[in-house]
Amino acid sequence: SDPRVRAGLALHGPNLFPARPADLGRAVLAHLKAMTALGQRLLALMATGLGLDPGWFVQHLTAEPVILFRIFQYPPHPPAAPDSWGVGEHTDYGLLTILHQDRTGGLEIRTGNGWVAVPPVEGTFVCNLGDMLERMTGGRYRSTPHRVRNTSPDTRISLPFFMDPSWDARITPLPLGPAERAPTARWDGADVFAFDGLYGDYLTAKVAKVFPHLQ
User: Fold this and answer.
1) What are the start-end ranges of the H helices in the chain?
2) pLDDT grade, residue 6 (50/70/90)?
3) Can you tell me whether residue 99 is helix, strand or coil?
4) Which of 68, 130, 199, 208 has a CA-to-CA distance to 9 between 20 and 30 Å?
5) In degrees, to the nearest 5, what angle opens at C-alpha 96 toward C-alphas 195 and 73?
6) How many angstroms separate the CA atoms of 134 and 136, rounded?
């Protein structure tokens, strides 16, 4: 029923769920609703911390957020494996990634002091910041470089929820005064501060590098 799906908008379409387990679709949709509410709440708190009205993000940027939920399975990664990582160093595209990881571990983030393991803590989420938050806050918040390697003997399950700006939201600096960016070397050599346009264009260009046929 979403008119954007009927119009064939890039990266929009109906969710596809397997026949088994039968309740997976219903559980995922309920999870998406709850996580979207949590994401909006976190952004309201971040707006307050930046000296903005708590409703700034939902009023100007996330009235209809682009959301994505994935269920990743990382098999055990033997030390002698030819590739180095389950997923290599990267940052996420949007605003927030709210991640539930199981007890296996393997997630690392890059800090000013090098790579640091993020051990799983029962009953908690990990929250990574995305490129658009760094761009719009002038570097007050930085997107989080991270990577994964499962060196345990068990399969690792990771459940990331991505909270991004609305598809047609224009990405401009927040009304915060002079930027506080400092030059930092990114994993991909890109400059997130160079982007000026609609979030949907940014996302499509990024995804097209992984799936070139989308171009």
Assistant:
1) 3-6, 24-49, 56-60, 131-136, 199-210
2) very low
3) strand
4) 130
5) 110
6) 6
Q: Residue 159: which residues within 8 A CB-CB, separation 6 or more?
A: 69, 70, 71, 72, 99, 100, 101
Taking the CA atoms of the chain, what radius of gyration do you get in angstroms?
18
Q: Is the pTM of this model over 0.85?
A: yes
H, E, C per residue of 3-18: HHHHCCCCCCCCCCCC
Give the whole-angstrom CA distance, residue 92 versus residue 143. Answer: 7
Per residue in 39-66, pLDDT (tens digit) is 999 999 999 999 999 999 999 999 999 9
- For the purposes of burial, counting CB atoms within 10 Å of the CB of 82, is it exposed (0-12), middle (13-18) or buried (19 or more)? exposed
What does the alpha-carbon distance between residue 114 and residue 155 come to, in Å, rounded to a whole number? 26
Distance set, CA 190 to CA 22, 72, 96, 206 (Å): 43, 26, 19, 11
